[in-house]
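Forwarding the complex inputs:
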Amino acid sequence: MRIQCWSSVKSLFQIICAGFLMGLLGGPAQAAPLEETVIYLDPGHGGDDTGIVGGGGLTEKAVCLDLAQRLKEKIDQRLGHRTYLTRKEDENLSLDERAALANNHRGALFISIHLAAFPDQRYQGVGVFFPARIPHEVASGQEALPDWDALQEAHREHSEVLAGRVHGALRRRFPDVGDLGMHPLPLYPLAALNMPAVLVEPAVLSSAAEEEKLGSDAVLDAMAEAIFEGIDLFLKSGVPGERP
Amino acid sequence: MSDRRRVRASLRIWVSLALILVAAVTFFVTRSTPPRPVARPVDEVYLPGYALYSESAERMPVQLFFPGVDLNLKAENREIYRSDDAADRLRQVVLLVLGGPGSDGLLTVFNDGVRLREVYLYEGTVYVDLDIPEKAASPTGALMEHLAVRSVEASLVRGFPEVERVRILRNGREVETLFGHIDVRRPRPLFAGSPAG
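Prediction (whole assembly, two chains):
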């Protein structure tokens, strides 16, 4: 009996030591607590990939990073949530790495920021996209294991609501520019994100008029503010019919 | 002032007014009408460059799909050369899509520099191998990239019963996206959904 008791105490001591060592090594301590809201902002393109280049030379990668930094500042200051950028500078980062970063940090929201381009100048304005349902074909006779990149399926409804909130906020703030709508698209890598995710294109860089506006601090700040409002509204009100 | 002079002066005024009117109408018409799309010739969009058909071959109608100004796909009636080889017919269709629409009110979906390497048909799946230079890697946003992919898919699937799905390759390799936004990893059956229908 005494030996059994001593063995239990020893096991408990070993578990506590292991936990302490893991803490020191920084493994699980890096992960956010489950109740914490982690927001991932993803400035599109970067490094060798300039994205769209406007007629005046403005690059999509630079505008996206600027917008994401402004948005992070607003969320940090006013909502107090932990906000991360997938890239903090002009660097190459694969689409898979962007998704993995957000998934590994247990992100609660993912906002990818891009700009649009069209083959003629008539198109201007705001477009917001969320992941479409991707058809997954299963070979006959095989067990239907879910694909890794079908993670988004569980969050599609939330992604659509988030897209609606962000689109609505941008339209309210920029009522005079065109509306490129809100659409489900088979977006990569958003399908592999285990959280509500949207891709925002707040302006059309191929439009000379919009490129000029994107050079203005006030316009960039207003865009970031509108996206912030959309996120804030989503976090406060959640999905209709669900408890926020 | 004599009658003749008066008539001349009034004629000058009327001619001047007419010229101003014509100039104004021309200005407004050209301003509100986008330039008519000019389809690129086959030798600009086909990488191998060899002739795909005999000019004397019989022609057959096909429907291509391009985005309209409202960004929904619209059909355009075109013709290809008739061939017993299904892949040859499909190859011609892709070349026409890459070349762009020939009608007003439709948008070109692929930028200059994107060319066809080859088209293969294997058990209902069409593999379309595009040559996309690094420079043209990200010329577009998510919506136009989606419309480009859907234009190819719709033009192949809707007109040819032997085609069940389309898989687009880039420079001979399977890729996640063509230009950084839209998932092209799986052969996709055509499904209804806005904005490309």
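Chain A has one domain: 33-133+146-237.
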